[in-house]
Design goal:
22-stranded antiparallel barrel, 733 residues, mainly beta, 3 helices, 3% helix, globular, 43 strands
């Protein structure tokens, strides 16, 4: 299995020419200017009236060094949380506490992921590996004007390193515990004339390190993976007035789904159960996960007199299958009263997107953008139930869904004076979805609410902001924005009829400041915000049949504060700090959901804290799921230049989040404890920075916490990654 993947990487690395990359030396006495594209233009982060965080360079490389998937970004900027019940596939993003816990393959999320200017709508697409990446930008708050309908919480934006005529590249090899081997490389190909090309590749491998001690286990070892991705880009630029950038990318994942562990939580507490072991489980089912993804895009730009025209065409195809022992135990085991082995796959997926955008290119006080956007997606979901004794598939529920949307938008910037600048935007979106479900097999199929559904939503969204230059070092800003998430629908299943949630709408208000102080050795920014979501879409799981259904809450609110700091204490000592406070609350006095496993009274198992009315836990006043009240992140890099011109450095990074509620209702067992994870890296750079050798540790303290659960009555949970360590060698060409 690994040989084809390594051959792809070898092809990428073999194209690198041994010519040293020549760059102007950096000014080590000041912080570098941070340029972002959060509002579709290249701008200094200080001038953008929005809470934006950027991760790039050393920080991005260090965080990714352990081989973890996109979840390594969680908590690394204020108000960002990422979790998953699928492992390396299907990450769920939350900004300012606002996200979606839905685990089904047609779930929609209020945080949009944009990769190289193309929206990745389906949650499976959002987990593409991060490699040869120029920057990650996290934009908090509604982004409905420039990015579309499903951005009411914000946007996470990934930009790959683009091709150039420089003959440069890099290669990296990492070896770590648990049989970890990470290979990564990129190179600009030696093309001439009007053409440039870049190929990038990554191959990540980890051995199965968790032993399944169940007698005759179908999956004797688990938690390993082989994850390979390749990206090829070609740039054609015959003159300054036109450019065309083509992007082709593929991914092949063969690994383990999230490992569910029966009785992981100690009853009546949120502690790990007595005798819990990270590297030992006991379950009788099959655990496997595969994912194949292919995508591409074409970005055309015409630079005319006073006007830029962009045409961005994108296409994505993904075929995932994730199969697991959901109960996490074996027959007869205490606290495991039933057996469940299921899988979810997707066939025939296809996403097509087209955007045409006009952008002014003048030097006057007025600038603007306008465009149209088209979206077309279709796929079939296969929900599979397996015989828990023979492990043969016995039941299939097929759900076909299509989603077509179009939008037109415009945004205007106007400089009233040198001190005061205004921005305003408006977008209209039309969104339609169709769903139909069929059944094949011997299992149950609940058709009480029908087997077909249709939604048709139209909505205006917009924003208004102002930036005021207080002095040469500080800008103040204020922003109002609204956005919406289109209707969602879910298929009929064995135990529940199909369900639907109408569109949700958000209004957000934010004020903030951005400063560069002490001769640009200190960069400080902060914001205060408040938002209200009307008709919030929620996913409820529970009851005597553990049914899953969509519903709308009348309202949810959030408010808080965020802070970002960069301090160049000396030319060789850089510290960054970020923090956030988020208060979220569901406001619907009549809304109740069944607690997991059974319709029991308060104080029963699990230990429900909410009032019980007619068997339902009343969730009015509860925080949003997976919404920590506090997050803190810290990094520090200390460099020790040597007389030879080489360098030794020490880098440490830490992220803290306070406790979280896993579900809509509150229960003692389903409250995740506060989590603190840190990393340490010691490295040596030589050859004028061309070569680097480093040792690293991730999750230094080996803090293990339950980070999610299954809403069953057997306290099934899953945990964060244990401590990992290794060595890395990187060479620039």
């Amino acid at each position: 299995m690994i040989a084809p993947r390594l051959s792809l990487l070898t092809l990428a690395l073999s194209t690198a020419l041994p010519v040293l990359a020549q760059e102007a030396p950096k000014d080590r006495s000041q912080l570098e200017t941070v340029v972002i594209t959060a509002e579709r233009r290249a701008e200094n982060i200080q001038d953008v009236p929005n809470a934006v965080s950027k991760i790039s360079g050393d920080k991005l490389d260090v965080l990714a060094s352990g081989g973890q998937d996109v979840r390594f970004l969680s908590g690394r900027v204020p108000s960002l949380n990422i979790e998953s019940s699928f492992g390396r596939a299907f990450p769920r993003f939350y900004l300012r506490g606002y996200g979606n816990t839905d685990f089904r393959l047609n779930a929609s999320q209020p945080v949009s992921v944009i990769v190289d200017d193309v929206i990745q709508e389906n949650p499976i697409l959002k987990g593409f590996p991060i490699f040869d990446t120029a920057a990650v930008e996290v934009v908090a708050g509604p982004q409905g004007t420039l990015f579309g309908r499903n951005t009411p919480a914000g946007v996470v934006k990934f930009d790959s390193v683009k091709p150039s005529h420089k003959q440069d590249g890099y290669a990296s090899v990492t070896v770590g515990n648990y049989g970890t081997l990470n290979l990564e490389g990129a190179a600009n190909l030696p093309l001439t004339g009007d053409w440039a090309a870049r190929i990038s590749a990554q191959s990540q491998r980890r051995s199965d390190f968790v032993d399944n001690v169940a007698p005759g286990a179908a999956t004797p070892k688990t938690e390993g993976y082989r994850d390979t991705a390749v990206r090829a880009q070609v740039l054609y630029e015959p003159h300054k007035q036109f450019s065309a950038l083509a992007n082709l990318h593929v991914r092949d994942l063969d690994g383990s789904p999230r490992l569910f562990r029966a009785n992981a939580i100690k009853r009546g507490t949120n502690d790990l159960a007595d005798g819990f072991s990270v590297d030992t489980v006991a379950f009788n089912g099959v655990n496997e996960q595969t994912l194949k993804q292919t995508g591409g895009s074409l970005r055309l730009k015409w630079a005319l007199d006073g006007l830029n025209i962009y045409a961005i065409t994108g296409g994505e195809h993904v075929k995932p299958l994730s199969r697991g022992d959901i109960d996490g135990g074996v027959p007869g085991q205490a606290g495991v009263p039933f057996q469940s082995e299921t899988g979810s796959g997707m066939n025939g997926h296809r996403q097509l997107t087209q955007e045409v955008r006009l952008e002014s290119n003048t030097s006057g006080p007025l600038s603007w953008q306008a465009g149209v956007y088209l979206f077309d997606e279709k796929y079939t979901i296969d929900n599979i139930t397996y015989n828990t004794t023979t492990h043969a598939d016995v039941d299939h529920i097929y759900t076909a869904q299509t989603n077509k949307a179009w939008a037109t938008f415009g945004s205007v910037n106007y400089a009233v004076s040198n001190e005061l600048k205004l921005r305003a935007g408006l977008r209209y979106t039309k969104d339609k979805k169709d769903l139909s479900t069929t059944h094949a097999g011997t299992g149950l199929f609940n058709t009480s609410a029908g087997t077909t559904a249709h939604t048709d939503d139209g909505k205006w969204s917009g924003d208004l902001s102002a930036t005021y230059k207080l002095d040469a070092t500080t800008n103040l800003y204020a922003r109002y924005a609204n956005g919406f998430r289109a209707s969602s629908m879910q298929n009929a299943s064995a135990f529940a009829g199909q369900s639907q949630a109408g569109p949700e709408n958000v209004n957000s208000y934010e004020i903030g400041f951005k400063s560069e102080l002490l001769k640009r050795t200190l960069r400080l920014s902060g914001s205060l915000f408040t938002y209200t979501v009307k008709d919030l879409q929620l996913t409820a799981v529970g009851g005597s049949t553990n049914a899953t259904r969509l519903l709308n809450a009348k309202k949810a609110t959030g408010n808080g504060a965020e802070l970002n700091l960069e301090a160049l204490i000396t030319p060789d000592f850089l510290v960054t700090f970020g923090g956030s406070l988020n208060n979220t609350k569901i406001k619907d006095a009549g809304l109740g959901v069944p607690p997991g496993g059974s319709l029991k009274v308060a104080g029963a198992f699990p230990t429900v804290k909410d009032p019980i009315v007619n068997g339902n836990a009343m969730i009015d006043g509860n925080p949003l799921p997976n919404a920590p009240k506090y997050t803190v992140n810290l990094t520090a890099r200390y460099s020790m230049p040597l007389a030879s011109g080489d360098e030794v450095y020490v880098y440490t990074d830490w992220a803290y989040r306070s406790k979280v509620n896993f579900f809509l209702y509150e229960a003692t067992e389903f409250t995740g404890k506060a989590l603190t994870e840190g990393g340490l890296r010691v490295g040596y750079l030589w050859g004028n920075g061309k070569y680097e050798a480093a040792g690293f540790v991730r999750n230094v303290t080996n803090q293990v916490r339950v980070t999610g659960a299954i809403d069953f009555n057997n306290l099934t949970g899953f945990v964060n990654e244990p401590r990992t360590y290794g060595v890395q060698f990187k060479a620039l060409f």
